[in-house]
Amino acid sequence: MTWLPLALVTALCLALYNFFIKLAANHVPPAVGAVVLQLVAAALGGVWLLRLKLQGQPLPVSGKGLGLAVLAGLGVGLAEILTFVVYQRGLPVSLGTPIIVGGSVLLTAILGLVVLREALTVAQVGGLLLIVVGIAVLARGH
To answer: Which class for 80: exposed (0-12), middle (13-18), buried (19 or more C-beta within 10 A)?
Structure first.
């Protein structure tokens, strides 16, 4: 399988993630929702890891890799709590998700440029500028 179908399935999963956070936000406190979400994600990851181990696949682990995964976990954990809070305050999912996800894409691209010294093409810069314009238009209308 090439990367594109897998990326599209990943986008679907992220869409469901945001959609169900919005639906849950007014039914559980943000911390409870985030913990439940993390426990389910950890269980799913544990099943996947066990499957790989039972298949005999090598699972090389480094201290650096674990440390970076911990930092990513901190980021996603805080993002989940804050997403629950944002939606609990009444922001529509049709507005919140594009701002949150678009903003994260923009900030990730900036980190890639500054920290990882990655290069962007003119088309990619144009796409990022469109994200900025889109966020501004969405935020202004609300």
So the answer is: buried
Contacts of 21 (CB under 8 A, 6+ apart): 33, 37, 80, 83, 84, 87
Residue 82's domain comprises 1-90
Which H or E element spans position 101?
A: helix 93-114
Domain tally, the chain? 2
Residue 5 shares a structural domain with residue 73: yes
- At residue 139, the pLDDT reads 84
Same domain assignment for residues 11 and 68 = yes
Tell me the CB-side half-sphere exposure of residue 30, using CA atoms within 13 A: 13
Give yes or no: residues 35 and 2 share one domain: yes
CA dist list (Å): 138 to 44, 84, 131: 34, 19, 10
Q: What is the mean pLDDT of the chain?
A: 93
**pTM of the predicted model, to two decimals?**
0.85
pLDDT in tens, 21-60: 999 999 999 999 999 999 999 999 999 999 999 999 999 9
Q: Which of 90, 109, 125 is the last residue of a domain?
A: 90
- Tokens representing 12 are 């679907």
